[in-house]
Amino acid sequence: MLPPARVCPKGGRRVRHPCRRIVDEVFYVVRTGCAWRQLPKDFAPWPTVYW
Fold first, then answer.
1. For the whole model, what pTM was predicted?
2. What is the torsional sign of CA 33, 36, 38, 44?
3. Is the dihedral of CA 41, 44, 45, 47 positive or negative?
C-alpha cells in the first residue's frame, strides 16, 4: 500500500528510516495505546513517527 520512493534526477538524500518500519511503529502506538514519547528506544525518534 506504500507508494514507491520518488527518484529525483539529481538524486536525493538517503532514507534514514524505512517507510515500512514507520508504519509498523504507528501500528504499535495504536495497538498498545502508549503515548508517542513512550516508544521504545530501538524505534525511530517519536517526532519522526508522529509526523
1. 0.70
2. positive
3. negative
